[in-house]
Amino acid sequence: MSLMGQVNRKALGLGVPLSVHLDVTYRCNERCEHCYLEHDGKDELTTEEIRSFLRQFAEAGTFFLTISGGEPLLRRDCFEIIENARELEFNVKLKTNAVLVREKDARRLREAGVEQIQVSVYSHKAEIHDRITKLPGSFSRTLKGIRLMRAAGLKVTLANVLMRSNAGDYAGVQELATETGAQYTLDPTITPMLNGDSSILGMRLPSEELRTVSRDERLVGNVGEFCAPPAADDDDIREGIPCSAGHTSCYVSPLGEVYPCVQFPLACGNLRRQSFAEIWAESEQLREVRGIRAKHLATCSSCAHLGTCTRCPGLAFMEGNIRGPSSADCEKSFVRTGVVTAGMMAGDGLSVRDAERMELVQIRA
Amino acid sequence: MKECYVARSRSVAARQLGEEMVIMSAADSTLFNLNPVATLIWKAADGQTPLTRIVEEQICPEFEVEEGEALRDAEQFVRELAAHGILLLAEFPIAETNAESDRKL
Fold first, then answer.
1. Residue with more model confidence, B77 or A356
2. Residue in A6, A14, A115 closest to B13 by CB
3. CA dihedral sign, ordered A264, A265, A267, A272
4. Which is higher by pLDDT, B75 or A352?
């Protein structure tokens, strides 16, 4: 087991929230077409509240801190927050669109000791990127910000959300990452809005294109290995936890609400009313999440993909059943391997008929 | 070895997990997991206390080891971490601007 794996296992055993994702604002200077947030800055946490919460996270044992938004750099105190986080010895990752990053900002982030910067880039073509962000000129400003941060010696990752409107551009973004000396990560997950509106799910990449992506060796490495049929599960898998959300990680909103994950809108408490330690230890919602083992999952426990599926409990929760399948992950498992999932057979998400249409399975009458 | 002062680098991320310290180097993102003895040295590395005194006053009473052996192990440990930029070493006390003496967590 890797050292990171050992640290995670130890944190799980000790009940330590090793990772916290903190959104410091929902305000944003972009209006990305697939975004799950409403960009309201009302009643945002103050600087002093955030400083107090950071100290509480550190005392609880949190090591990895992701600072995100909205666009976090819209907060005038964002650098103060980042520097305070570093004084508390967090490993800090910043998620930004880099539109506002100037040379002195890049230097300041480097001097603060930010571990990694993740920047959303949707396309290597300015017109497509700008159409998605709905901010004219955003591509050139983002690219400039990336170059400034790289020049300052920061580690930058280009995060490429893939959907219908930019489906053909991932290779170009990957090349852009190589050219700028950045890392590249691709994510085909579009989540419903936090207010429950699921209309944006129509932007998800069609299954046929997801299948093509999952067979691109530039993205997945060894295609044969990545797309191999799932191995049989065993007791370790059945007794395992489906995801780190609520076990060793959690999400804190700009209003101080604590959730198991940014994609898991199950409110567990508010830091304005309770301490972080109290919420982490005593929240009934977190206890429920922690009580769920793979063997308890309504449909997935009988699925061939149980041991390898990336099932997101938050997406399952948003689909109506915290113990149910996440249809987006059913689809990913299916298009990757060609093996029909239990969720599909139960009628959730991609249907077996869809699979037949894609000539991935043969259904005989 | 002459008197040795050790201080924690400003550029790392660090947190105690149980009795062990988890540290990540900002330079190369290498992850370190210090055992309880190394964790004690890390926490005592304030740039002002010589390594001999850390070993004598903290390591030996806590872990019941012979002082000479403990000092040799401690010297090897601090050199290894210094090579990764995790610790700073000096023959004189290290100024607070370079050290981490104000960090208590």
1. B77
2. A115
3. positive
4. B75
Domain B5-90 CATH assignment equals 3.60.15.10: no
Over residues A57-115, the pLDDT tens digits come to 999 999 999 999 999 999 999 999 999 999 999 999 999 999 999 999 999 999 999 99
Percent of chain B topping pLDDT 70: 90
Strands in chain A per DSSP E: 19-23, 64-68, 91-96, 116-120, 156-161, 183-187, 249-252, 257-259, 269-270
Give phi and psi for A38, each to the nearest 5.
Answer: -100, 135
Nearest CA in chain A to B29: A115
Q: Quick one: chain B helix, strand, coil %, rounded to 5?
A: 35, 25, 35
| Domain range summary for chain B, segments of one domain joined by + | 5-90
The alpha carbon of residue B45 is apart from the nearest alpha carbon of chain A, in Å, by 15
List of chain B residues whose C-beta atoms are within 8 Å of the C-beta of residue A6: 33
- Residues of A whose CB is below 8 A from B22: 7, 63
Asked if B30 has any chain A CB less than 8 Å from its own CB, the reply is no
- A352 forms bridges with which residues in the sheet? none
For A116, list phi and psi in degrees, rounded to 5: -155, 145
Q: Which residue of A3, A10, A59 is in closest CB contact with B31?
A: A3
Nearest Cα residue to A175 out of A106, A221, A121: A121
**Mean pLDDT of residues grouped by 10 in chain A (365 residues)?**
91 97 97 89 95 98 97 98 97 98 97 96 98 98 98 97 94 97 93 83 89 89 90 87 93 97 95 98 96 90 90 91 91 90 77 55 43
Identify all chain A residues contacting B15, using CB atoms and an 8 Å cutoff: 58, 61-63, 89-90
Q: Per the CB < 8 Å rule, is B22 touching A7?
A: yes
**Residue B38: which of B22, B53, B56 has the closest Cα?**
B22
d(CA A282, CA A273): 14
What are A197-235's pLDDT values in tens digits? 888 888 998 888 888 988 999 888 899 999 998 888 888
Yes or no: say if A95 and A118 are a contact pair by the CB < 8 Å rule.
yes
> Model pTM?
0.90
Could you say which residues from 310 to 349 on chain A have a Cβ atom under 8 Å away from some Cβ of chain B? none
